[in-house]
Every structure is written in C-alpha cells, then in structure tokens.
Write a sequence for this structure.
C-alpha cells in the first residue's frame, strides 16, 4: 500500500482503493464526503469568536447535555455531506436520539454502509479556543440491502468496523483514519484547502510518559484506577509520568499516539458506566489504537469485542501505548 509523503488525501484514497480488486468505490466516496464536511466545519471552527457560533443553542441532546451551536452546525454538515452523495443507508449521531434511515427501504438503494458520528468532540472547549474534533465510524449493514436499516445494523461490535477516523481542529487541522490497513494522518493546507499525507503509518510508541485523566474525579474512581494513578506519580524508574488533560478525547488521544501515553475515562461512583459513548467515541478510537499498535480496553475486556446494546451507551475507556495499558490492566485486575 503506497505511503508516499505529501500525497494528497484524494490521491491516497484512489491509490489505495486499487489495492482492493473488488472495491466498488463506495468507501472512497464516503471518506471523500467526510473530507469535504471536515473542511466546511474547520472553516467555521476557525471563525469561532468572530461569528455567532459560540455558546449554547438552548436545546439539550439525548445525553442531557446542553447542545452547543457548533455541535448542531457540525452535525448538519456531516449528515448533509453523506446524504447528498447518496453513499450511506443509515447514520447515527451523538446529537440525534434515533438513527436516520436513508431511503434504505427503496430496493434501488444498493448502499451498504452505515456511519456513526460524534460531530463535535470536546464541546466544552469550543468557547475557550482549545482544540476540538470530530469522530466517525463505518460499518457494512447486516440487514439485506434494499430493506429498511434497523437498530441491529448499528449495534455491531467494534471489530466489525470497515473504517474509522477523526478530525482534530487544532494548531493545524488533521484527518486521521484507518480502513484496517494501518493508520495515516493528513494535514490540511488551509491556503489551498487540500489535505496532505503528513503522518504515514502512525504508530503508538510501545510506552510513554504521559497519563491523561480528569483528576478532578479522583475521589470517585475505583481503587484499581487510583492505584495506577499513584503508580504514574511515583518517583521510581522512568516515573513520575507527566499529566496532560485537554478535555477533548480526540486531542488527548492524538497527542498520546504521537508522543506515547495513556488516556483514561474510568467508571466512577458518579458515572457508573463512565462518560464516553461506545459506538461513536470508544469503538472508532479503539480501532485506530489497535491499528497503530496500541490497546483499548474497558476494564477487563477489549473494547472492540463489546457487543453494544444501546445506541448511546457509555463505557469506561482506557487506551494508548501497549505497555502502559497492560500495566493499568494489572492494577484493575487486582480488584475485579
Ligand atoms: O469534562 P470531562 O468530564 O473531563 O469530560 C471530557 C470528555 O468529554 C468529552 O468532551 C465528551 O465528548 P463530547 O464533547 O462529544 O460530548 C470528551 O471529548 C472528553 O474527553
Ligand atoms: Mg465526544
Ligand atoms: Mg460531541
């Protein structure tokens, strides 16, 4: 598979499609639609503070969270880009209670892909000019083409994903994704609106010295997590590690994938299932982590093996450099 640096994303998609002789080009069109919507949202994010895109919209979403104007804007742009290109038969989003079926009961509609999306990740950082992101996950439907998509199509274990990725709107805007053949990162050249292959074959370093967790919740964490945080802070061997927490999953995960580190959003006495959503936050990041030689667990089990039961279910999430996640698991297992 070609990883020529400074390849544009468009060239990379075409070049790598030819690696799959039976490919219909649908997945390429889908990634292209996401690329387009990412540029539109990036443009709006960069104007935050200048245009009326900061603050709440005055509605709450299914999670009971105040919806930010940019949450709603990003949701519309990604859904529109996918619907207008007639390449998916169903979409589920953090910002919508139910999934959307797209003419899926029209037998002429031969589309086989569904998309799950967190249109704007790190919403609490929008108004304070800290990097935010978008997360997406793609599956083949399991119900027959030409029949209505059902909840079953969305409640697939993460290991069934055919593609997953994220966009980080930070000091530069990057699109990072996998189709199960490694992870590649593309940086947007804003002057010409083109994504270039800047980070070929991204890999988590085997270990690192960054731990990422909202320590404000420390007293509510279970003993295994508390012990691991103490282990990270202990003056011993290559420790203490350094603590970094942006509060945007995409940005925290991205930094740790480049530098080596572990991200933790544990369950606690106040959030029994943790905070992050399995289907459009944890599964796509877990697919990327594993494709980049990292690990992603939710306590005992591998995130990608978890069989979902609800569209917006939450799950404890631990992901990052292999050796650090394995060490954390040792601490968690002591109390399981
Ligand atoms: O403020 P907390 O509790 O530490 O939570 C931060 C986490 O919540 C999130 O903002 C949840 O995602 P959304 O912003 O998409 O709802 C993650 O990006 C982030 O890692
Ligand atoms: Mg999110
Ligand atoms: Mg979100």
């Amino acid at each position: 598979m070609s990883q020529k640096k400074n390849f544009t994303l468009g060239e990379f998609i075409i070049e790598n499609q030819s690696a799959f002789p039976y490919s219909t080009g649908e997945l390429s069109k889908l990634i292209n639609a996401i690329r387009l919507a990412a540029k539109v949202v990036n443009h709006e994010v960069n104007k935050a503070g200048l245009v009326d895109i900061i603050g709440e919209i005055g509605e709450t979403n299914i999670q009971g969270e105040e919806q930010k104007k940019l949450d709603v804007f990003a949701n519309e742009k990604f859904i529109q880009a996918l619907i207008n290109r007639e390449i998916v038969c169903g979409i589920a989003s953090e910002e919508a209670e139910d999934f959307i079926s797209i003419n899926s009961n029209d037998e002429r509609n031969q589309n086989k892909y569904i998309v799950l999306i967190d249109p704007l990740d790190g919403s609490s950082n929008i108004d304070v000019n800290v990097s935010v992101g978008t997360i997406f996950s793609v599956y083949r439907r399991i119900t027959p083409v030409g029949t209505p998509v059902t909840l079953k199509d969305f409640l697939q274990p993460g290991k069934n994903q055919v593609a997953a990725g994220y966009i980080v709107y930070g000091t530069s805007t990057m699109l990072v994704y996998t189709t199960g053949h490694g992870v590649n990162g593309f940086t947007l050249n804003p002057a010409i609106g083109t994504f270039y292959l800047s980070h070929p074959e991204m890999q988590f370093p085997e270990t690192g010295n960054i731990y990422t967790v909202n320590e404000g919740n420390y007293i509510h964490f279970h003993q295994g997590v508390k012990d691991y945080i103490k282990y990270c802070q202990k003056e011993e061997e290559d420790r203490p590690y350094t603590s970094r927490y942006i509060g945007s999953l995409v940005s925290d995960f991205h930094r740790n994938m480049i530098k080596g580190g572990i991200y933790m959003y544990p369950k606690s006495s106040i959030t029994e299932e943790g905070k992050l959503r399995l289907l459009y936050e944890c599964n796509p990041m877990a697919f990327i982590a594993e494709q980049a030689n990292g690990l992603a667990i939710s306590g005992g089990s591998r995130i990608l093996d978890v069989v979902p039961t609800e569209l917006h279910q939450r799950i404890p999430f631990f992901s990052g450099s292999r050796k650090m996640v394995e060490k954390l698991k040792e601490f968690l297992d002591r109390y399981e």
Observations:
- Residues 94, 118, 121-124, 214, 247-249, 275 surround 1,6-di-O-phosphono-beta-D-fructofuranose (ligand 1) (CB under 6 Å).
